[in-house]
Amino acid sequence: MDESARIRVLIVDDHSVVRMGLKAFFDLLDDIEVVGEAADGSEGVAMARRLQPDVVLMDLLMPNMDGITAIGRIKAELPETEIVTMTSFIEEEKVTAALEAGASGYVLKDAEADEVAQAIRAAFAGEVHLDPAVARLLAQRIRSKKPAENLVEPLTDREKDVLRLLGQGMSNKEIGTQLFITERTARTYVSNILGKLGLASRTQAALWAVEHKLAEAPRA
To answer: Considering the entire predicted model, what is its pTM?
Structure first.
């Protein structure tokens, strides 16, 4: 594979064994390249700024700067860089905070290495990838918010189309192709949807669409 087509990944984790194990696995793959390793959130932010990776694989509990703070700072400076959170626990407050800070994926440290690679590929493609247990947790949280009819009302028909495709896991590029609009326009629609629904990320919007059965294909 052409090296320019590989997904450039920065690993941020305070455990050297974890970093070494992930790098050893990714080195076996043709489409993922580890461009850097950081041992804490502060170092991760600095390295992300310097390396501008495609995807950051971020632990949450680290010294000097926790993962959630680091996610927010990286996304503020590098909005095009996607971040996948990898941690050993599922705590609603942490999960929500990570996604609201800008993470586009959430996998557990006991996941198979292939699943971590899939999460990186999904993030790079602008798609949503969550551990099933995390997805269930977020779906329950979203379900407890407001009735669907009160939230969907302000959306235009085109925004509903975009939300439906978002719920099917499509990236902005795929949504654009499906609706015959540009990727930039699709991104704008997604931003408008998040604002109208009071959600913080495309991940939450996708889960919201699935939970309220808006991700189903329209009847012919």
So the answer is: 0.70
